[in-house]
Design brief:
heterodimer, A: mainly alpha, MetI-like fold, B: alpha/beta, D-Maltodextrin-Binding Protein, domain 2, 2 domains, 4-stranded mixed beta sheet, 16 helices, 12 strands, about 50% helix, globular
C-alpha cells in the first residue's frame, strides 16, 4: 500500500504528458518483447517442434544426461566455494581497515572485466602440457586441463565476484556496531556470525548465490577453452548445445537449450522474489534510522 | 575471535577445491575388461566415427573380449592439434591434414618422426577433395574457381589459420591458377620454365587475395562455415570438403543446395595416427593401433564411402556409394607445393602469404 502511494506521488510529480508516458512505456515493452520474449519463445517452440517424445528422448540421451550431470556437479562445487570466499572477502573489506584494500576490491572485479576466453587460456598456460606446472603434473599423471578439474577452476575464476560484490556494499552500510555489541554481551565468534552477521546479510547473500549459480551453469567461453570437448565426459550443457547444433541435430540442441533457459527462468523468478523480500526487509530499518 | 568462522570457511573452500581438482585429475578405470580410448578428430568426421566406433567396438569385443568405449572430441583441425599439444589425452588423432599431426610431434614430441609411414597411403585411409556448395538452381552461375571472384559473389570458407579444410580450399584455388597459367602442372618441376612458374605464382597470389575479398564470414572450423551457409543462409557459395557438401545435401534436402565440381581440385588426405606417448601411458597401444588399421579394412573403407569420403580401395565397397564420386582432376600438395611443411611455412605461418593478403 505504502509503495503504490509512493509511485503515485512521484508519477504526479513528472511533467510529461500522458502520451509521452504511454509512448515510453510502449517502446520499452515492445523492445523487451522483440529482443527478449521472442527469442525465448523461439527456443521453446524449436525444442517442442517435433513433439514431447522427441524432446524427452533428446534429454534422455547418454551424452545429454552426462552434460546435465556435469553442469550440476560444477555448480555444486563452485557455488559453495565462491559463497565462502565471498563472505570472507566482503567481511575483510567491510569491517577491517588495511593497506591495499582498494586493490583487493579492484582484483575481485577482475573476472568481470576479463574476457572469459582469456580466463580459460590462463589455466591452459598454467596447467597445460606446455604450461608452467604442466611437466610436473604430467609426470605425476594428474590432468587438470581438458578434465573436470579444469572446468571447475575456470568456472570458479569466472564466478568469484558475484557473492562478494553483493555483500560488500551491504556490509559496509551496516558497519560493525552490532557485532561489537554481541561480543560485549559475551557471544563467541561462531555465535556472533550465525546470530548477528548472517541474518543481517542473508538476502543479499542469497541473491549473490543465485547469480553465481546462474553464471556457473551457463558459462561458455572459459569452459570451452579448457574442456577439450570430449563427448559424454567434459561437455557441459552450453557446450553440448553447440555440439548438437553443429551435428544438424537442431531439435535436440534446442531441447537442451530450453532446459538451460528454464534454469535461468527459475533463477530469475527466485531473484525477483528475493529482491522483493530484501526491499521489504530494508524498508522498516531505514525508517528506524531516520526515526532516531 | 570473530575471524574463527572465516578461517573455517577458508579451509573448507581450499579443501573442496583441492578435492575437486585432484579427484577429477586422476582418472582410472576399475574394470580390467573395459578399455577406453579418446579419438581427437576434426569437424566433418562426426557422422563417420559415430558409426565406425560402434562397428569397431563389436569387432574388438569379438577379437579380444574387451568392451571398448571410444570417446570423441571434434573441432577445427588446427585447434584440435593445439589441444593435444596442450594436454588433451588423445590416444589417436584423426585430423584434416598431415601437418596438424606433425605439429603434435614437433611441439610436444608425442610420436616418432616416421609416424606417417607406419600406415599405408601416408597414413590417410580415406581421401576427399574440395568442391563448391551453391544454393539450388545455382543462381550466381558458379561453375569453376574463377567464378568466385565475379562481382557480388559472396564466398564462405573457414579460417586457414585454424581450419584444415580452409587450408585445402586455399591451396586448391592456388593450384587452379597455376594450372590455368601453365597449362600443365608438370611445368612446375621443369627448371626451364622457372620464370613462367614465378609469374603464375604471382597470378595465383592475386587471385587468392581477390577470393578472400569476397569472403564474408571466416569461421574457425569447417562445420561452423557449413552452418553459416546452410542454416544462417549467408553467402552464395561454400568452399567445402566434398564429404561435408554431400552431408549437407543429405541432411537438409536436395531441394535447397547443389554441388558444383570445379575443373580441377586438390587431393585432400586426412591423416590418422596413434599418439604413442599417451597410448603407452594409458596402456591402449594395441587397441589404438587396431582401431586405425580397421579403417583400411573393407568394412572401414565401405563406411568411409558411406559417409562420403573417397575410399583408398574400392574393392568391397558397394557400387551405390562409389558412383556418387564424380571424376575430377586432382593434384596433391606434394606435387604442387612440395609438401605440407613447405606449404604451411610459405602460406599459413605468421607473416606468410595469407597474412600478407588477408586484411579483415
Amino acid at each position: 500500500m505504502k509503495r503504490t502511494g509512493n509511485v503515485r506521488r512521484s508519477a504526479a510529480a513528472t511533467t510529461e504528458s500522458r502520451w509521452v508516458r504511454r509512448l515510453l512505456i510502449g517502446v520499452s515493452l515492445a523492445f523487451l518483447g522483440l529482443f527478449l520474449m521472442m527469442p525465448l519463445a523461439a527456443v521453446f517452440a524449436q525444442a517442442f517442434s517435433r513433439g514431447w517424445e522427441v524432446y524427452v528422448r533428446s534429454l534422455g540421451d547418454h551424452d545429454a544426461l552426462s552434460a546435465i550431470g556435469l553442469t550440476l556437479l560444477i555448480a555444486l562445487i563452485v557455488v559453495p566455494v565462491n559463497t565462502a570466499f565471498g563472505v570472507i572477502a566482503a567481511w575483510a573489506i567491510a569491517k577491517f581497515q588495511f593497506v591495499g584494500k582498494s586493490l583487493l576490491i579492484t582484483l575481485i572485479d577482475l573476472p568481470y572485466s576479463v574476457s572469459p576466453v582469456i580466463s580459460g587460456m590462463v589455466f591452459v598456460l598454467l596447467f597445460g602440457r606446455q604450461g608452467w606446472l604442466g611437466p610436473w603434473l604430467d609426470a605425476r599423471g594428474i590432468h587438470i586441463i581438458f578434465a573436470v578439474s579444469g572446468i571447475v577452476l575456470a568456472t570458479l575464476f569466472v564466478t568469484f565476484p558475484f557473492v562478494a560484490r553483493e555483500l560488500i556494499p551491504l556490509m559496509q552500510a551496516q558497519g560493525t556496531e552490532e557485532e561489537e555489541a554481541a561480543r560485549l554481551l559475551g557471544a563467541g565468534g561462531w555465535q556472533t556470525f550465525w546470530r548477528v552477521t548472517l541474518p543481517n546479510v542473508k538476502w543479499g547473500l542469497l541473491y549473490g548465490v543465485i547469480l553465481c549459480n546462474a553464471r556457473a551453469m551457463g558459462e561458455f567461453g572459459a569452459v570451452s577453452v579448457v574442456s577439450g570437448h570430449i563427448r559424454g565426459e567434459t561437455n557441459t550443457m552450453p557446450l553440448h548445445v553447440e555440439v548438437l547444433y553443429n551435428e544438424y541435430n537442431i531439435t535436440a540442441a534446442f531441447a537442451v537449450a530450453s532446459l538451460l533457459a528454464l534454469l535461468a527462468l527459475v533463477t530469475l523468478v527466485l531473484k525477483s522474489a528475493l529482491q522483493w523480500k530484501t526491499a521489504e526487509q530494508l524498508a522498516p530499518e531505514e525508517q528506524g534510522y531516520t526515526g532516531d | 575471535m570473530i575471524s574463527r568462522p572465516f578461517v573455517a570457511f577458508g579451509l573448507f573452500s581450499i579443501a573442496l577445491v583441492s578435492i575437486a581438482v585432484f579427484a577429477g585429475g586422476c582418472r582410472q578405470s576399475a574394470d580390467p575388461n573395459a578399455v577406453e580410448i579418446l579419438n581427437v578428430s576434426y569437424d566433418p568426421t562426426r557422422e563417420l566415427y559415430k558409426e565406425f566406433n560402434r562397428v569397431f567396438a563389436e569387432h574388438w569385443a569379438r577379437q579380444s573380449g574387451q568392451t571398448l568405449d571410444v570417446r570423441m572430441s571434434h573441432g577445427g583441425s588446427g585447434k584440435q592439434a593445439r589441444s593435444v599439444i596442450d594436454g588433451l589425452e588423445a590416444d589417436v588423432v584423426t585430423l584434416a591434414l598431415a601437418y596438424d599431426v606433425d605439429a603434435i610431434r614437433r611441439k610436444a614430441g608425442l610420436m616418432p618422426k616416421d609416424w606417417q609411414s607406419r600406415l599405408p597411403n601416408n597414413s590417410a585411409p580415406y581421401t576427399s577433395t574440395i568442391v563448391f556448395l551453391v544454393r539450388k538452381g545455382n543462381p550466381r552461375g558458379i561453375k569453376d574457381w574463377n567464378d568466385l571472384v565475379k562481382p557480388d559473389v559472396s564466398v564462405i570458407t573457414p579460417n586457414p589459420k585454424t581450419s584444415g579444410g580452409a587450408r585445402w580450399n586455399y591451396l586448391a584455388a592456388w593450384g587452379y591458377v597455376l594450372k590455368r597459367e601453365l597449362g600443365d602442372l608438370a611445368e612446375l618441376h621443369d627448371p626451364n620454365s622457372a620464370d613462367a612458374v614465378a609469374k603464375a605464382n604471382e597470378k595465383a597470389r592475386e587471385f587468392i587475395k581477390e577470393v578472400f575479398q569476397h569472403v564474408k564470414v571466416l569461421d574457425t572450423g569447417a562445420r561452423g562455415s557449413t552452418m553459416t551457409f546452410v542454416q544462417r543462409g549467408i553467402g552464395d557459395v561454400l568452399l567445402a570438403w566434398e564429404n561435408e557438401a554431400f552431408l549437407s545435401i543429405h541432411e537438409l534436402g536436395p531441394d535447397k543446395f547443389e554441388i558444383v565440381v570445379p575443373s580441377i581440385s586438390i587431393l585432400a588426405e586426412p591423416s590418422v595416427a596413434v599418439v604413442d606417448k599417451v597410448a603407452e601411458r594409458h596402456g591402449t597401444r594395441a587397441v589404438a593401433e587396431a582401431y586405425l588399421k580397421h579403417l583400411y579394412s573393407s568394412e572401414g573403407q565401405a563406411l568411409a564411402a558411406k559417409h562420403y569420403y573417397r575410399p583408398r580401395d574400392a574393392e568391397g565397397v558397394p557400387e551405390e556409394y562409389m558412383k556418387r564420386f564424380p571424376d575430377v582432376e586432382l593434384f596433391t600438395v606434394r606435387d604442387v607445393f612440395g609438401g605440407w611443411e613447405k606449404a604451411q611455412a610459405e602460406h599459413f605461418d605468421d607473416g606468410g602469404v595469407f597474412d600478407q593478403i588477408y586484411k579483415p
